[in-house]
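Exam revision sheet. Question 4 asks you to relate a sequence to its structure. Input first:
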Amino acid sequence: MHDRFAVRRDKLRRALRRPNADAILITDFTNVTYLTGFTGDDSYLLVLREGQILISDGRYTTQLGEECPGLELFIRRPGVTMYQAIKRVVRSTRVRRLAIEADAMSVALRDRIASDSPRLEIAPFAGLVERLRRIKDQGEIARIRQAVWYAEKGFAVLRAALRPEKTEKQIADELDYQLRLFGAKGCAFPTIVAAGARAALPHAAATNQPIGSCDFVLVDWGASEGLYLSDLTRVLVTGRISPKLERVYGVVLKAQLKAIAAVRPGVTTNEVDEVARKVIAQAGFRRYFGHGLGHGLGMRVHEAPRLAPDCRVPLRPGMVVTVEPGIYMPGWGGVRIEDDVLVTRTGHEVLTQVPKQLEELVVG
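Answer key, structure tokens:
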């Protein structure tokens, strides 16, 4: 089970050849977990050209032994700061050029290391581990499937019990509870429930507004299976299907289906985004679609690669991305449809199977 983490560290070592670094200090806790299997926090990982040292403290000694046996450890004693531990470990390994995660290490820590070790060359780099995380192995894909299962089961129960007098917040809380009942560790992010005009806010916070006062409600939710996440969005019809809702929803669904059909190895992320954006623009709603089409999904709900006009990354088998076009019209509301999609060797697989034809989304 632990071999996969050794393989990941070896891939990172090969990536160190480009910056010509002797080692890299991993300070992003998610990346530490990805490279070691350790699920605690307050721990950094020094990956050398040969070997690695996990810097942690005595609270995690037993957990470290269970989750990553055989990994060389430096356990901080009480009173020894993380900085002091880093200094001791780096000096003991005689590292001359140290790569750091520029988007994870604080400026204060970087400056202190540089000041106290003038002979140490610090090379800031961003995205070395994140680029490795873009391609999921079979174990990771299985865990994402589990997170999808939790999300779908919880949503099905919630939908069956939906009542017009319930508020956005009550619905969000109930959905989070159902996810846990089915076995999820929790929700992947704060659940979005936005009724009527509030659905025009892509990241709306749930309020005490009853959903029955509007004709539709947008629900954006996901589950955590422990480390890996899912992310879905559906619009439920709580009143009548107006001609405008039917029109807007139809455009968004067409855009999403066409974009999903374009997902396959070799196609770039901006090209997939353009497929959906073109459908929405031709329908006259270009200015109402103001975000990227989607994003990578894994240990975090927003990972590389992004599906957006300014991101040209070729899709590769093992990538998992969301496809979530939307139209948001202030004063009226918004429609977003989101599914999780796995890039396969021959094309793609839609991991999420919640119904999304408008007539299938009528409740009450």
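Marking note for examiners. The first strand starts at residue 23 and ends at 26.
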